[in-house]
Amino acid sequence: MVPTDYTAYFTATAAAAGVLIGLLFVAVSLRPETIFGEGAPAAGRALAGSAFTGLVNGFFVSLVALIPQAGVGGVSVTVAIISLSATLRLHREVAKQELHAVMLAASMAMYLFQLGVGVADLFNQSSKTLVECAAYIIIGQVSVALGRAWSLMEGRHMVSPARKERTEHRPARPGPAPSLPGTVTADDET
Known about the structure:
mainly alpha
């Protein structure tokens, strides 16, 4: 059972996750052909799917936590298993060079931790510590989902790995920027 101290928190996280899910739909609708189109890279689908999975996970745990006399154990176990399965399925489709290993590891760790907390809560529903753990897990899930959604908005999934590597490892040249012949620069005017 969720202590009443957490009602405001779970209300806020349910509302925030719901709004962020809506914004994710808007982000995807801005460039649908780059995420779900025929020639779209698998990385775009993985970013969108992972962000959606994390937000929906937190949304449902928060909603169930608001039901009087309900615990977070059963819903945590259920959504953790679904989220683990969805995350693994999404990332199997992505080429190794496009894989966001840190985000994948963070997602997997959170869902496994959520699974453990959920199982523990099923056996000890009066533990305030387990509810607190569930609350912090939601913060982690929303954080990872926001990171993935931001990557999606930036269009990182559309940059080829070879091009990305070339632009990331290009050293900056010292001195003023080169100018075209016949153009006047700020240095020439003085």
